[in-house]
Amino acid sequence: MTTSTLHVLTPTWKPVGGVVKIMDYANHALAAGMDVSFWCPRAWDPDLPLFAIERFADLVPDNPRVSIHADQQLTMRARDLAFVSLPPNFEVAHRSLPRGMSPERIIHIIQNVRHVTPTWLRGYPLRLLTRPAARISTNDIVRDAVAPFVDPRTIHEVIPLGHDLGYFHKERADGFVRPIRVAHTAWKSDIGDRTEAALDDDRFTFRAIRESVPWSSLRDLYHWADVFLCAPNPEEGFYMPGLEAMEAGCLVVTPDVGGNMAYCRPGENCLLVAYEDVDGYVAALRTLADADDGQRAAMRAAGHASTAPFNLDDERDGFAAFVDTLWGRIDRWES
Q1: pTM for the complete prediction?
Q2: Distance from CA of residue 113 to its chain's centroid?
């Protein structure tokens, strides 16, 4: 029987969240017995930071089951599937689909709620949802946001987003050492800087990362901090730093930006503030400073407990089951 290949389209090799998830699914395809063929317009380099991530070490052309291509026309054979995340990559996959092949051979993973925002990419992602394809949403919130627009005749399943959270784990002792250490990132929003400027309180000290960095630098930031201030975009499919910070034992302060409510339980594992509300962040920090050790320990424990569902093993198994179902649908469509 001909070996199946998953053709994985990515716009870049940068280790940003969306691309990391694409690479996870490439690993899941290998685990399911498929070959993987990457299609990326950017030049591949074995020294790229993405491939320094341990779990992606085998996703290189030295592996006989992996190939890498720079052109933008796939070669789709009888038992092949295409995998896309960024909406413009859909057109590359679609025009590569031979006549008579099921449109569900294109797997579209939806990682954020922006797909239903008419202004994102001039509304193309929203229009794309109405076109037939196989779809995976990374959590129930994303699924519920896009479901009214997705072609109801096509398969659309939730496979909860997985992550190597053990990499960020840290056990903490009860209590804060003063000054309380507050961390944030600044590549999506400067809310952390504005909070620091507004907080006239020598009980706190701040540290930020301002550009894309390796995971090791993020882990160091989380491990240094007592509190993590989430600084997301206004619409997120998940917002990974909040969950990573919980796994590292940080107390998390966050706004509701959509997908992060898949793991946030305000008042239990985090404190909720309004989006971009400096006064809210300041008040939340003072609340945490005034809380007793038991209250902070309970929030930290709830944060650790919240990370358990978001693991790569369950995501891998979910994808294998999805593909098994998908082949049955494709075979019926093409027969």
Answers
A1: 0.92
A2: 12
